[in-house]
Amino acid sequence: MKKIIFLLSVFFLGCSSDNKYLINEGVVNIDYLFNSPNTEWFKKNYDSYNLDTKTLNYDFSNLDEFQIEIYMNTKCHDSEREVPRLIKILNTLNFSEDNLKIILLDSNKKSSDGYENGKDITNTPTIIFLSESIEMNRIVEFPYENLEKDILNIINNKNYKHVYYSE
After folding, report:
1. Do the beta carbons of residue 64 and residue 97 sit within 8 Å?
2. What is the mean pLDDT of residues 132-145?
3. 16 backbone φψ class: left, alpha, beta (φ>0; ψ -120 to 50)
4. What percent of the chain has pLDDT over 70?
5. What is the pTM of this model?
6. Could you list the residue range(s) of the whole structural domain that residue 101 is in?
7. I need a surface site. Which of 27, 82, 97, 118 has the fewest CB within 10 A?
8. Which phi and psi angles does 72 have, rounded to 5°?
9. Is 109 left (phi over 0), alpha (psi -120 to 50) or beta?
């Protein structure tokens, strides 16, 4: 009987710990991106991205003054391309995951908890750079030059405009 209870406990613990990898919308972390069956494309795209090391040699030290929010969809080809690249860049720059928020949206760019409300999310991925909870800039769907250069321009307030920007 003890053996059966033990096996059932292990089974239920195993099932419950995997549930965090099965969500389709809401807040997730980098571990989710690497391990969810919803993001089987992530590791391959992360590993295959060749960093722009020339740009990364510039001073990114003020990146730590920002919080970054990523709004993405796991079935969006632009998210599949850009999010692994972004995470690889942030990991290379030792950006703290404490300052990173990854929000999965459904195909209508919505989440049941409304994380996207008031954020004007029109395309995924949308990468928002905040300073003291105030949006400073964003990258929408794909970078203007490349992610490294766009990030450098944003964090140095170099008059960056995302590809869909219009006044």
Report:
1. no
2. 95
3. alpha
4. 89
5. 0.88
6. 23-155
7. 118
8. -145, 170
9. left
Contacts of 51 (CB under 8 A, 6+ apart): 88, 89, 92, 148
pLDDT tens column, 42-97: 999 999 999 999 999 999 999 999 999 999 999 999 999 999 999 999 999 999 99
Are residues 98 and 105 in contact, defined by beta-carbon separation less than 8 angstroms?
A: no
From residue 34, give the alpha-carbon distance in Å to each of 18, 88, 90, 138: 13, 12, 15, 24
What is the total count of domains within the chain? 1
Q: Say how far apart CA 116 and CA 5 lie, in whole Å.
A: 43
10 in any annotated domain = no
Helix axes 77-92 and 147-155, enclosed angle (nearest 10): 60
